[in-house]
């Protein structure tokens, strides 16, 4: 049978192990990026200024998208009427050009979606805060890329993957 002193030592070691495990779990949680920084509210004037800039950018992107789709449609019509006598190389070139144009249109549409998402986050109060770690996104980054959802360090980690 264990002596009383040994029992107390074992109980103390067990408590210390549980405490260390809890601390390492908290550290692991913070390392995973689930830590949320307290969000400060910005003034109504600042929020309105950001919203106006985002809405303006959204309008520009939607106009650009409409214009691009219109050009693609027109080019496609021209290609169909001007395809007589094309060999395989001509057909391949036209297909490649069409895919590039569609890719550009999709990129613009993706940017539209990003700005719409930024507007949603602005309305919810999450604009300017990293979605992954919860830290504030630097003002310089938001000025350069207003629809940013990740801080610089989280974006760098994402790009390395």
From TrEMBL:
Positions with biased composition (Low complexity): 7-35
Entries under SUPFAM superfamilies matching the protein: DnaK suppressor protein DksA, alpha-hairpin domain, Glucocorticoid receptor-like (DNA-binding domain)
Transmembrane segments: none
GO molecular function terms noted in the UniProt entry: zinc ion binding
PROSITE patterns (alphabetical): ZF_DKSA_1 (PS01102), ZF_DKSA_2 (PS51128)
Record keywords, A-Z: Metal-binding, Zinc, Zinc-finger
InterPro entries for the chain: DnaK_N (IPR037187), Znf_C4-type_bac (IPR020460), Znf_DskA_TraR (IPR000962), Znf_DskA_TraR_CS (IPR020458)
Domain Zinc finger DksA/TraR C4-type: 125-160
Record bears the keyword Zinc-finger: yes
Pfam families on file: zf-dskA_traR
Superkingdom to which the source organism belongs: Bacteria
Zinc fingers classed as dksA C4-type: ranges: 130-154
Region (Disordered): 1-49
Species of provenance: Rugosimonospora africana
Keyword Zinc-finger: yes
The protein's name: Zinc finger DksA/TraR C4-type domain-containing protein
């Amino acid at each position: 049978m264990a002596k009383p002193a040994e029992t107390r030592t074992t109980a103390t070691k067990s408590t210390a192990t549980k405490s260390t495990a809890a601390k390492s779990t908290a550290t692991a949680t913070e390392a995973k990026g689930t830590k949320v920084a307290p969000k400060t509210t910005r003034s109504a004037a600042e929020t309105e200024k950001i919203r106006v800039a985002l809405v303006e950018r959204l309008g520009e992107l939607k106009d650009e998208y409409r214009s691009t789709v219109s050009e693609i449609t027109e080019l496609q019509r021209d290609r169909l009427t001007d395809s007589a006598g094309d060999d395989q190389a001509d057909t391949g070139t036209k297909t490649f050009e069409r895919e590039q144009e569609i890719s550009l249109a999709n990129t613009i549409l993706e940017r539209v979606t990003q700005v719409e998402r930024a507007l949603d986050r602005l309305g919810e109060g999450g604009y300017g805060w990293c979605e992954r770690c919860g830290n504030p996104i630097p003002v310089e980054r938001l000025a350069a890329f207003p629809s940013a959802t990740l801080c610089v360090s989280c974006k760098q980690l994402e790009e390395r993957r």
